Amino acid sequence: MLIKEAVEGTGYDAGFNCPHLKLGCLDQVIGVVDRLHDWHRTEEIPRTTSLIEQAQAKFTTGINQQDLLWLESELTEMKARIVMQVADPVANLLATLTDDQINHFEVTLENHNKEEEEELNLPLDEWTEFERKQVSKELEDWLGYLDDAQMTDLLNAYQFDRGADQRHHEQSIETQKRFVALLRSRPAADEIKSNLIRWLLETDIFQSDDYKSFRKQQRTQRALFYLKLDRSITTQQRQSVLSRLESYQKDLESIHGNS
């Protein structure tokens, strides 16, 4: 859960599909993906397996605030490495997009946003129930069996807040609009690259002071939840998490060994 939440999407992950790709464009996309896969297998997977190994050691005896800060820092560095690796080829590709392709990208983002809005506009009790079920499933996936009292205690500590999700959704849309406007201005690849790096790594550059404060408070609340979770779980549940991390590590080592 923590790793999933630590690396937040910006809205670009809604998906991008170029309609009617010309052969050259398609070859370019395939080449970018292949090079990224090669880099990830040879360089990033060893770093990730080391990160998992360190996380296992920390989680074995119980985590503290410093451990959470360490993991957040490691994940931020991982994101930066990936962004720097893909920024140049992605910018070169984006600089070649036609108006139709940019329009398609914009429609894809809008459809993604509409799906999120439909969920956010559910009656509050339905929205809360949906979110509680999602978190319950994830807790069970990682921890195994939780009795009713333990599950209720953890869900109550999670602090479901639709207003927070709505604010993040609105901020994401603003970022998307800036990105589409950048593409429509037909900048050179170097300008696209510099903006991609800045917007993806300095995610607060367009945020108001109020929103920055709000996000900081959210991170603090979520950290308190993970610390409570760590104190609440049984020995068997802790082992369930460790076993899952070990499984991920072995899978990654196998991929790296076959590269």
What does it look like?
The longest helix has 39 residues. Helix 2 packs antiparallel against helix 3 and helix 3 runs antiparallel to helix 8. This protein is 81% helix and 0% strand. With 259 residues, it is mostly helical.
Biggest pleated sheet: none
Low-confidence stretches: 2-20
**Tally of helical runs:** 10
Q: Return the string of H and E elements.
A: HHHHHHHHHH
Mean pLDDT: 88
> What best-fitting shape do the alpha-carbon axes yield?
globular
Oligomer: single chain
Total domain units? 1
DSSP E strands, number: 0
Strand content: under 5%
Q: Which percent bin holds the helix content?
A: over 70%
Distance between the termini: 28 Å
Radius of gyration: 21 Å
> Which secondary-structure class do the elements indicate?
mainly alpha
In short:
This protein is an all-alpha fold and 259 residues long. It has ten helices and no strands.
Detail the topology: elements first, then pairings.
Layout: H1 2-6, H2 23-61, H3 65-94, H4 99-120, H5 124-143, H6 148-158, H7 162-184, H8 189-201, H9 209-232, H10 235-257
Helix pairs in contact: 2-3, 2-10, 3-8, 4-7, 6-9
Structural key phrases:
259 residues; mainly alpha; 0% strand; disordered N terminus
